[in-house]
Design brief:
Length: about 200
């Protein structure tokens, strides 16, 4: 899987939402190797878009489409200031439900202190989170070449997610969770209360 992450400050929320809707109807059907997108706008006006393709070549071919270039030229004007981009094939997916059923998405950002340790902990976390966080439908974690990470967590509702945050970690898992938090400290949370979810099934 190849992931593109796009972030920026929104200048025109209504027009940006219209552009995303237009991409879903007009451009998505012909997108090469397209697997799905997740995005949204926080209450503070920050936007994040996470777009998934089967391969990097598919993403490049899609970027080269004339209609894609024209769409992005218009969409770019919905932002103000710098737009940040990340791209990676270093991706971990944990699925315990249907992410398309999510009514609330939380994006976590930070830096990885030890990528190999994180890889081992990812495998442990899959089973542990199924027990500790049954509210969690799926996570997609993108590890970027500069050491940053973007994790997208899908929940049926914000209320379920907040209740899950209060759940106690079983004593036998406490050390693993503490190590995971030390290896991948979260520096920023983005709450998407009206997430944009698009996939070839949409």
């Amino acid at each position: 899987m190849f992931i593109q992450v796009i972030e920026g400050k929104v200048a025109d929320e209504g027009r940006l939402r219209a552009q995303l809707a237009r991409w879903t109807t007009d451009l998505m059907p012909a997108a090469y190797g397209y697997l799905g997108s997740t995005g949204g706008i926080t209450r503070e006006g920050s936007c994040i878009l996470v777009v998934r393709f089967a391969t990097e070549d598919d993403a490049r071919r899609n970027n080269d489409r004339l209609e894609q270039g024209a769409w992005w030229a218009e969409t770019r004007t919905c932002f103000e200031g710098e737009i940040r981009f990340h791209e990676t094939t270093d991706v971990h997916v944990m699925r315990h439900g249907d992410p398309d059923a999510a009514g609330f998405v939380q994006v976590l950002e930070g830096h990885v202190t030890d990528r190999e340790a994180a890889r081992r902990l990812d495998a442990l976390a899959d089973d542990a989170l199924a027990v500790v966080r049954p509210d969690l439908l799926e996570t997609i974690t993108a590890y970027h070449p500069d050491g940053e990470f973007t994790e997208v967590a899908y929940f049926r509702s914000e209320a379920e997610a907040r209740r899950g945050e209060e759940a106690e970690v079983p004593p036998e898992l406490a050390d693993d969770f503490a190590l995971f938090e030390a290896t991948m400290p979260t520096e920023r949370y983005l709450d998407l209360r009206e997430p944009w979810l698009a996939s070839p099934r949409t």
